[in-house]
Protein 1
Amino acid sequence: MSDARPIGVFDSGVGGLTVVRALSEKLPHENIVYFGDTARVPYGPKSPQVVREYALDDTNILLNHDVKLIVVACNTVSAVALDVVQKQARVPVVGVIEPGALAAVKRSKSKRIGIIGTVGTIKSNAYGTALKRLDADVEHFSHPCPLFVPLAEEGWMDHRATELIAKEYLFPLTQHKIDTLILGCTHYPILKDVISRVTHQTLQLIDSGEATAEVVAQLLDSEGIRNLSTMNARLQFFVSDVPHKFAEIGERFLGRTLGRIQRVSFASSHD
Amino acid sequence: MSDARPIGVFDSGVGGLTVVRALSEKLPHENIVYFGDTARVPYGPKSPQVVREYALDDTNILLNHDVKLIVVACNTVSAVALDVVQKQARVPVVGVIEPGALAAVKRSKSKRIGIIGTVGTIKSNAYGTALKRLDADVEHFSHPCPLFVPLAEEGWMDHRATELIAKEYLFPLTQHKIDTLILGCTHYPILKDVISRVTHQTLQLIDSGEATAEVVAQLLDSEGIRNLSTMNARLQFFVSDVPHKFAEIGERFLGRTLGRIQRVSFASSHD
């Protein structure tokens, strides 16, 4: 049995395109509908209450496209609003926290794991909770890195300032002698090189997007909803705004040009 | 005649508190109602279309508080949506672009003026247009500084990374031998010291918020709507979200504690 319905992916903005990239490398025949809430990005500093309201809007946009599965690419939403998405959706929902935590536990030898993310993700302690559930012996240490998102969007991957900022953010974690670091925000894989450099290549970096693509592949099989077609997959991109420099930034995150980008409005507000 | 109705001030988020600070220093007896759209901040990278929709929402929130005058503290809104606010409001409206441009023209000797701001503000060329209208002989040079907003919010005013970033942003402007620099974003006054340092104290820095407070004072008199009471003024703060670290960041921008912060919802959406 083959299911050609698209996988739905949503994020607060452009960052989730790193997850789309991982998905389409792992699952090249799956159609994907992406929604980025670029009119209200970023979610990272915002309160859980507002993030939950926005997550519901985002879910409804994807459901309108008859998706067979929803990937919550946004770490902040996965951390504080996965239940909102699961309650609303009539299809399987995969967040990025559990897959990221699982990959980290599998790869860490010292069982000392670091987590970086937005203020919202770190405050929620969602990764810490997931890690402890997977292995009670794991010790975890976390640090929010709010400047990493604008640095990745500005494209300053090799700038001396980025290196200084990365050092400042990561120093407290390396002091805890971690051997594995979860990149708990979709923007951070863009900064992999500088993160490796300032930590002297001593850390295994866990890209939650890649880990999530693995979990999605397994789920498609277990649910019997894989697309068995060998046709080229169709990728569609929807956003709530087409902000300045969107195509340029999107290309950096997706690893290729996006093609047509369609702007959509939310069907209802929460008042 | 005395008019005790409050002055309404709105901004995309917390940055407009630097304008409130300037207003309440200049006009200590005026009541002020502030609204920050913290649920959708920042506006700077977003498209003019979305900024105009949001500006209308923000205006309506202030009008519900019976304000006698509206100050558009947000440079991005002042640059691309002042007409939207003016059309909606039944009261005088003051943006920050005209006052900032006027102050720069008055103070520049060489008539070579630099402008920094968000991508939206710089792309609009609103400051350039205003400068040329005030003095056709002025030459202006501009540069967007998207990392300044998150650096100011992170509180890294004295960090070496901030200095490097400021150097990179400001170098092309100093090459043009400007003598005056317009700080075209409410966040930038927080970074005045580092901006002065990396430009070797050679530039006159124009804080549009301070310039706007001057214009507001004149307008209150010319319209006969000054509050003649000598009672302590009442400052009220409304936001669309109470994000992480809001009180801490707000205090840095306002120069004192904010007290009670009330969350409000928008009355309608734009669908």
Note: The interface with chain B takes residues 38-40, 45-47, 49-50, 119-120, 123, 146-147, 149-151, 153-154, 156, 159-162, 164-165, 168, 240-245, 265-271 of chain A (CB under 8 Å).
Protein 2
Amino acid sequence: MNLILITPDELDATGRAQLADNRAEHIRKVLRAEPGKTLRIGLLDGPVGTGTVEKISEDSVTLACEFEDDTPPRPAVDLLLAMPRPKVLKRLWAQFAALGVGRIFITNAEKVERYYFDTHILEPGFYNARFIEGLQQARDTRLPEVAIVKNLKPFLENELFSDIEEKLLADPSGERSLFQCLENVDAMSSSRFQPLEGRILLGVGPEGGWTPYELEMFKAHGFEVFGMGPRILRTDTACIALLSQLSLCSSLK
Amino acid sequence: MNLILITPDELDATGRAQLADNRAEHIRKVLRAEPGKTLRIGLLDGPVGTGTVEKISEDSVTLACEFEDDTPPRPAVDLLLAMPRPKVLKRLWAQFAALGVGRIFITNAEKVERYYFDTHILEPGFYNARFIEGLQQARDTRLPEVAIVKNLKPFLENELFSDIEEKLLADPSGERSLFQCLENVDAMSSSRFQPLEGRILLGVGPEGGWTPYELEMFKAHGFEVFGMGPRILRTDTACIALLSQLSLCSSLK
């Protein structure tokens, strides 16, 4: 827990928050904080700031909170992910928030078993708790948004992606690499990777891959298909690998 | 299982292997292979090839194996990893093999609990089984080598790294990024990233980080310290992120 996340409803009118759950335990037992100590805090979906410990008791901690003026920007990458086996997705939620994802679209696909969707891990109560865990690890405040898309075709057709500048789809059939897709988007720029103004949507398929029909549908909707090289990775490893590579891209000027 | 790995001792004089474990089950139940079908196979630490199904019974599968002439090169990245909590490392073994790592040095560090080393997951029988799982996923044959280093200082001093061209250490104190470290190693080259001839050694610290003393020791032994940006990642996420970013580097010319 590298940042203590506080929700707006936990703040009273004087800017104080009284914590009585695992955050209080972390402040007492791991940080061994005494009254007067300042801690790195964040307001969920708001700015970061500092919390000064005012009172510590056996079951609660009171923090006087001060926040910066600006809320950090939402991460610029969205993820479209064919529903993995629930066991796999369960472990991924916290990592998505830690790596930084703006929106997550969990979709159906021909090679996704229907029963995968009958799971409690797709409930907001479940994934938001995991997101908060990942945000507190990575020192971010921006809670990813999740949409469950049980029917891919109408979803793509309705073009809900007006703020997306680049749509990329990972598939073994892709002949270009992720970086060839992003390189020199603007040929007039002297930089190798043109910083994108808009958002990137990254599509990742099911264990068995997208079908030819699905691939054509994505291409018809403006997705560029890229390959990940000869190694075939598990969905969870592939998601972490791709999000890290994309975050790197935005650091290359 | 995207490749069936066979060990040299499983091959008889005629180049046939009789499999009776989870590989046989995979061939029967997942691949639904019939006699005559050819499968993608690999010889552990040797070349890839094709296996033709000769016989299938309820408890075994016989493959006639043919291998290519050349063994794929060992992945060019080695990992020096401060011993994580055993639960975390347990999940990482297969991913290391899938992402491609040549050698793995599991080391002690001031912020590593001594009892972490008292675990069966550091036994070759345990990690090699996980490696084979990862190799079969990623279609590689090169088994990572593991060394357990309980005393970091003499290990670094003995300079066991004569084949290492670049030593990199991940730490929040690093002011340069991973890519600034690798960029223009040879300024005469017109390419942005000079392909390295030798190997890269990537160092990753414990959850609590390296101590100032340890950092100085690494620097004195030629390690360049780099930062990973403002997000603090869990050890397992960080390892996967860094290995993916490095594999990307070697694809950028």
Note: The domain at 77-249 of chain A is CATH 3.40.1280.10 (Alpha/beta knot).
